[in-house]
Amino acid sequence: MSTALLFGFHLVSTLILAAWRTSRQRAKHRQLLRLLSNPSETRPNTLVIDHDMPVAYCVPGISQSVTVLSRGLLTKLSDQEQQAVIAHERSHLEQRHDLLILAFTAWNEALPWLPTSRLALDAVRQLIEMLADDKALENVTKHTLLKAIVTVATAAATDDSSSKNHSSNAGLVGMPDGEVSSRRLQRLLSQQEPLGRPQRVVVLLSTIMLLICPTVLLIAPRLLAW
User: Fold this and answer.
1) Pick from 80, 51, 101: which is nearest to 144 by CA?
2) 218-223 CB contacts, 8 Å cutoff, 24+ apart
3) pTM for the structure as a whole
4) Looking at residue 168, what is its pLDDT?
5) What is the pLDDT of residues 115-140, one digit of tens each?
6) Which residue, 137, 132, 46, is CA-closest to 94?
7) Cα four-point dihedral sign 198, 200, 203, 206
């Protein structure tokens, strides 16, 4: 039982430390944004930075979250493409993807020797990008979203320093736009039918079992020993 308690304490303390570190990083980033950006004249809770590279990311917050766009993005993307990018980023904020990333980041930091922890973090990052893409597709076509993604990714790849800076910023939520997975693009390019009701039920039950089974296997021997 003591082993389970120590393991639980390790996970919780790692989560708290990761949350504290992330909070400090966001606070510093917000201070920089106050100096380097201007509020958008047409979009609420949106800041515009004077940068030629097409950059878009979001900064979650407890009281107020903001979406950050660059001047390069506003000039290189059409109105529909801008709408796709903004809908994508705001989906991260509305669905609080930052909390999901925080949990899996803490899990990876607590168990860095476990290969599945890193794989799970990478998978979650890709999944939240796909969820945000789905939200954007409620407002624009796939062609428009794909063009916006490719424009941002291509521009980021042409400038190594900008790409690194963007990665650190976009890491606040999800993946940097410059790192577009082939699976994400393939999903947008292909015609995929949504899962039927039986398939969704199977996925839901499998998820519940994945949460319950390890907990039962960990606690049951101690309870039987009593």
Assistant:
1) 80
2) 218/4, 219/4, 222/1, 222/4
3) 0.79
4) 36
5) 888 999 999 999 999 999 999 999 99
6) 132
7) negative
